[in-house]
Amino acid sequence: MTGKLRWRRVLVKLSGEALMGSQDFGIDPETVGRVAKEIAEAVSLGAQVGVVVGGGNIFRGVAIAAKGGNRVTGDHMGMLATVMNSLTLADALRRLGVPARVLSAVPVPSICETFTQRGAERYMEDGDVIVFAGGTGNPFFTTDSGAALRAAEMRCDAFLKGTSVDGVYSDDPKKVPDAERYDTLTPGEVLGRDLKVMDATAIALARDNAIPVIVFSIRTPGALVDVMNGSGRYTVIAD
Question: What GO terms describe the biological role, i.e. biological process, of this protein (predicted)?
Fold first, then answer.
């Protein structure tokens, strides 16, 4: 079955909001379960999967700075939010019989393992899903940048960014109904047109390591496996 896969080793980036479902805050167990089932299906097809989950459903570090607080403190709080989301997703995967490990860039040894590249490589080769928590472990970096970094370290074939829409648009399609949708873009076009798909650091990291970025809708049931098989709707960002 592995022959069906367009990309075998992937890094899947999910926003924290993707775990909220229809809620305004927090974690929706039903949504987490659906996402976990899609990851489990990809694993059953022979994929090696790493996942990075944001923390925006619980806390955003920039919210502290926006109100005059300390950005570093806010970002540390945001990193802890990603640990909570990662634990939730890993637990859902294990309940489906999929081995999953949370590796955090921020050491919290009583809760999960601390990230090392060698350890993560060994686990991934063994077939475990690795949920990377804590971003890069440093303030002032987004979880998109953390995901691009992990994709490079793990030598992934692709960086799959799950969003609320089915690709990259010239503007927010929820606000601008006639926004243009792109099937393919180069990193230079994303940066030059100031398309808000992810931050410039993440785009540059993926470009410099020749990792294609695939933008798809995580809210569409079955979309992740479709992308892995090279079908469905998505935008490819690559040179």
Answer: 'de novo' CTP biosynthetic process; UDP biosynthetic process
